[in-house]
Amino acid sequence: MLKDKSWLLSHNPKPPKINGSNALEIKASQTPVIVPDAAVTTKEVTTAARAYQTEMYEKSIKENIIVVMDTGSGKTLVATLRIKHELARIGAEKRVWFLTPTVELCKQQCKTLQQQIRSVEIRSFSSQDNVDGWRTKELWDTALGNVRVAVATYAVLQTALSDGFVKMGSIALIVFDEAHNCVGKSPGSKIMNDFYWRDKNAGRSVPKILGMTASPTNKVGGDNLQKLEVTLDATCKMPRIHRESLQSHVNRPVVSVEYYPTPASKLHCPSVASMRAILESLDIDDDPEIARWKSENDERSRTKLNGLQKKGNTFVRQQLKVFCDRAEAMSEQLGILAADFYIAKAKSMFIDSATAPNQSAFQTWDYSSRVYLANLLKGVQVDKGALTRVPSPSCISSKVDCLVRILTSHHCGDSGSRGIVFVTERATIAVVHHLLSQHPEIKRLFSVGPVVGSSKHDRGRRDLGDMLNTSEQSDVIGKFRTGEINLLVATSVLEEGIDVSACNLVVCFDPPPSPKSFIQRRGRARKAGSEYFILIDEAAREKAKDWEEIEEQLKAEYDREDKASALSAQVASRETSDRTFIEPTTGAVLDMENAKGRLQRFCAVIGSRRYAEKHPYYVYEELADQPPPSKDQLPLLRAKVVLPASVPYSFRITWSKKPWRSEKNASKDAAFEAYMKLYRAKLVNENLLPLSHDLKSEDMSSLIEIREQYDPWVRVAKIWKASKAPQLYSVVAEERAGSSKMSFEITIPAKVVLSLFVVSLGDGGKEWNVKPQAARSSLRQDNNAEKDGSSSSGYRLSVKDDKQQQLVVFKTPTKAATLSQLVPHILYKVEAQLVASELQRRIFFDAGSDGGTKTGMSSLIRSAITAPARGEAEYQSLEFLGDACLKLLTTVYFTAKYPDWPEGFLTTARARVISGSALCRNALAWELDQFILTKPFGADVWLATSDDNNAGDVTRSKVSSIGNSSSSPRTREIARRTLAHTVKALIGAGRQTGGYSTALSWTKSFLSEVDLPSLEVGRRQLFDRSPSDVPLPADVQLVETLAGHSFRKKSLLIEALTHSSDFTAQNWCYDRLAFLGNAVIENIVTEVIYAAAGGASSRGKMTRYRSAVVNRHFLGYLALRWHVEQTRTTVVQKTRTGFAQKQYNVGFPLWRFLKHCSSDMTAEMNAMEGRFAELRCGISKAVKSGGAYPWLLLVQLRADEFYADVVESLVGAVFVDSGSMETCKSILQRMGLLPYLMRIMKDRVDVLHPKEELQVLAGGKKIEFKLTKIPGDDKEGLTACSVYVGDSLLAEINGFACGEELEIRAATEAVVALR
């Protein structure tokens, strides 16, 4: 339990002191501005929870606590984290209640939670929602429906529990905001005493409790604090371990007491005197209330009438008396002008409103009473000029004059002054607001707005003289946040929790009624160098002693903590901390002094994603069973270090090896243990540095010298002599544009897979379709017969090498004049196929069980090794297919082989293996270079020695000397990227030949490191490592409906939705699944494009198709658009007493289910909702029917990478869970990715990026984009984008957009200029 008064220390780390005789001054530490409790729209947001917030969150999940921290220190973030923790663990039958003392705070906190927790329904329940009229359980059940977090006032839940509409057993967690209000017989206290404690004492389950306050008691004294703790069954806790972190983020103002002179005599105000005279002259019998009771003449009415006549206290008389007393008090406190204004304004408002036929301000009043009072007010003598008169020292009080002096003398000039003036009385707010708004000096420096809390008057009942209504000042706080208003005059409603911007000036026009108010109001002045004034009557100097008493308590507590800090430093220096580890191979050293630094660097390396947590944090726990021997000694404690969610959960939490008396050494010990754990897991290398994979960067367009192309005819000549069954091929040649047709036979001693090809005979010559038929074996004749595989008569062409060794025999039954012309073309094709067959024999013969048996394998290999110079389009399409397949196979391999590696390690490891440089090196190592077909067709290679009508020979003029060791090897030059692309094309051919198994076998032929048994084995390893006993939290169950997939292992879905900023997660973040999912999506899209193109499209076109649907912008758009609908039911008021149910659907897009702990992400999500609402229709129209891809609109959306990440991670999770590409494909179909891809290809949508189109039109000239900031008044800064082609400026665009958007717009204009 928190000791007596020690909670006060959290509100002032430095002791305040008295300055002079007239001022109490508390000096502030000059530290950065703190984030408001609910500051989700300001720029003062932090990326993640601070150390002290994390400490309080950790404590809150272990036990019921009351978080005691300054106003503006981020208590709501602690509550948000605690609520997320609870939502992840409860079923649909329970919910969380977040309670506030006021309606305004209820609305604000509801909005904050809705922005912080997007995956569940969060609703507010207050008097403004008409819950007072919900008198059936059916209405309550309807209203609560799918609500997972109910935000309500204390009174609403207390009433619902009292009426039996809500049961304590249905609540998992209650958060009490401003928990110090749970005292006495308040609603918060009754919730606990009447329901919570009743159930707990009866042994029934009760909710967990989290309280939040800046001042846990309204009075100074430990007894009240203990009573609060007992009531809430919680212990007050403040940041103890990370107190310095709290102090560094909270500014304390200079506190001063300003005395104003007491008026020498009571001032005479004619309008007040006139009011008093009318009040004293009232005849009770003239009051219509008396007449009403007389007319009823029954026992009840006679009793009521008798009481009124004795007391003379009718409703109208009460209203008039209170109004008169208020006016008189204003005359004394504010001056005659204030009283005159108050009476004149109230009189005018009441007379105009009370007698109007459709008035609402006084709707609960009896009409006759309204008319009666209006007539009385008409007799009041008022100064009509008071409504417009400018305040001056002669007509305002010394108290108001003192306030004016403070405001004018402490205005910060142009640096952005913002202030709050706290006033006790609600009615006084309107008058002080008027005086300040009209005062010449104040009017010049400030724009003033009034703020009051909700009251019974806002729901119909309104008293005479109440001039403000919350519905009439709803925009005031919003304007204050934006700076349009910079001075508020407010009641205590702004003390507690209401999110207003940090102020540099706070003035208590009336002294704070309690230490709680003193601390709460001071918390509003949290800008650096801020000031806090308390106005006190000169005659009441004794009241200043209250603040002196608090100051003494703060000073004593500070001195105690200061001594404890000094003692801790001394103990740390005395404790021995000599743990050391020396890496045996390199001699690298890890010790207690460098462990924390090494661990920090490791976290920074792996936390590369935006918004990701990049720092470890430390939590300390005292050993309760080993108390210190004396008060002068520190207790033993252990430290726990928690690493970011980018690290596997099994490595995230590490405790110090032994207990220590100093936090400093305990944290070093924990860091040492954590780093050793990383070393043993091989997440750091032998130099004790984070793993890295150096990538060798090479110019892939540069040329490399490779072997001469393999000549298959040498081997053919040798085989011919030994062949017993040469292959006989039937071939049909048809003239494409005519009716000519011929058939012939080819005999060759090797199996060759030939497909249809086209032959063009010379410039402008005829084109022939050459169609090889199936092959059959042909028995050899005797030695004297022609070795052509046939003994039949006809015309024959024998192809021989330069040594007259027979290679191929052509034979046609009839005379064919064009046969000798076709022969070189056919032989060109045969040669390519023979090269492919040799490659298959040498490298792929043992590559999988399907090696060499699949129909068309050799043909696909031939296409894969045919360089682009030979003009075969299928090479490019196979390379396109193989690129995605290789990425998928290596992604699964590395992800499965290294289950503890974060995504960054996997990315660099994969890049090292499949980079162009690596593939090029492996191709050379496997001598693939000699099989790459680069020679263009040349008929002069073959010399015909026969005419068209006679048999003869065709002699090949050149035969390679492969295998002749005496000959010098000949070489050729080729681009490095051609080697890398050939490897990918071969893998693509394997994918087409025998599926993923053949593709993997062929991949391993070149990349021996990839020792994955099969794609399914790798996928199964990932599945088996995922926890199987994790239930799916209620807040993400809708994702299964959205995806159309029920997860066998729910832990995969949870991981897929966990951002790396979520330090509360007890699982890994989605980074690895997104890494895997990206490869799966790219592979599926690639196969769809390949299938649709039939292998005939160019690589560039297919790549553009794929890039159009697999990019951050489009996937981000899908995450925003793809949603699941949930039916909600609300209760609406039809009449004053009648309610009805109203159903409507709410869409939950995928991104709303993201689990994160980043305030910056929340702010980005809020901004994105506005951009998406503006751009959605345009993008949807372009996707549905547009003729061009919406590059500009998607870039203007500015979807952050986490939107695309969650799409990829979900697909990755489904792949691991289902093991089915078809299931993943169905998800891409459901989300709209594949339908748009098919429309792009079908309708030939222009997907060329404007910058790429500009590159084409530039014709090789250098293109340069220049971004220049243009000075101006706008905070974001105007930017100019200029685009140069060569030395010419073609376009220039100005705007406030991001650089990428400006470049696209500039490129579009430049394209128009070049066309």
UniProtKB/TrEMBL annotation:
The UniProt entry, under SUPFAM superfamilies, shows: P-loop containing nucleoside triphosphate hydrolases, RNase III domain-like
Which stretches does the entry tag as region Disordered? Answer: 1-21, 774-799
Q: Does the keyword Chaperone apply?
A: no
Q: Where is the RNase III domain?
A: 836-995, 1036-1219
Record's GO cellular component terms: cytoplasm; nucleus
What GO biological process terms are annotated to this protein in UniProt?
defense response to virus; regulation of defense response to virus; siRNA processing
Q: Specify the Helicase ATP-binding domain's residue ranges.
A: 56-234
- The Dicer dsRNA-binding fold domain covers 595-698
Which GO molecular function entries does the Swiss-Prot or TrEMBL record give? ATP binding; helicase activity; ribonuclease III activity; RNA binding
At the top level, the lineage of the source is: Eukaryota
Cite the Helicase C-terminal domain residue spans from the record. Answer: 399-566
**Which UniProt keywords are given for this protein, alphabetically ordered?**
Antiviral defense, Antiviral protein, ATP-binding, Coiled coil, Helicase, Hydrolase, Nucleotide-binding, Repeat, RNA-binding
Q: Which residues form a coiled coil?
A: 537-564
Protein family according to the UniProt entry = Belongs to the helicase family. Dicer subfamily.
Q: Any idea what this protein is called? A: Dicer-like protein 2
Q: Which organism is it from?
A: Podospora didyma
